[in-house]
Design brief:
By secondary structure, the protein is of the alpha/beta class. It is 37% helix and 15% strand. It has 4 helices and 4 strands. A 4-stranded mixed beta sheet has the order 2-1-3-4, sandwiched between helices. β3, α3 and β4 form a beta-alpha-beta unit. The longest helix has 21 residues, at 105-125.
Length: 126
């Protein structure tokens, strides 16, 4: 069974929409609140990682982010189900990897924002 970590999801209806879409895939949907944003992503799903950074992040991410953990074989079917549930392209999406499992949610969100800016700049340049 895989897990979907939710960052920046503050509305119950949004969380329930993800749970409904993920239900057929038997995925656990786990909202990550401010007190978990400095915890390594891998640690949130039981992997051995570095300790969490000190303190609670009191800011805002500036959007929503989903991290798919141990769901690689289901992604082709899960993403359209999430789109139908109203989770569109404005929500950042990432897959947990050996590379990013030590990152916390804040660092991953910043990296995804940077990647999106690069992609959008390339599109404008064409």
């Amino acid at each position: 069974m895989g897990t979907i970590l939710l960052y920046g999801f503050e509305e119950l209806n949004d969380i329930l929409a993800v749970k409904a879409a993920a239900g057929p895939f038997q995925a656990e949907v786990k909202p990550v609140w401010h007190d978990g944003w400095r915890t390594p992503i891998g640690a949130l799903v039981g992997r051995k990682t570095r300790p969490a950074r000190e303190g609670v992040f009191s800011g805002k991410l500036g959007g929503k982010m989903m991290v798919f953990c141990d769901m690689d074989s289901q992604m082709d079917d899960l993403l359209p189900a999430l789109r139908q549930a109203g989770i569109g392209p404005e929500c950042y999406k990432a897959v947990l990897t050996a590379w990013n499992q030590e990152w916390d949610g804040i660092a991953l969100f910043a990296e995804l924002q940077k990647e999106r800016r690069v992609i959008e700049e390339r599109r404008k340049g064409k």
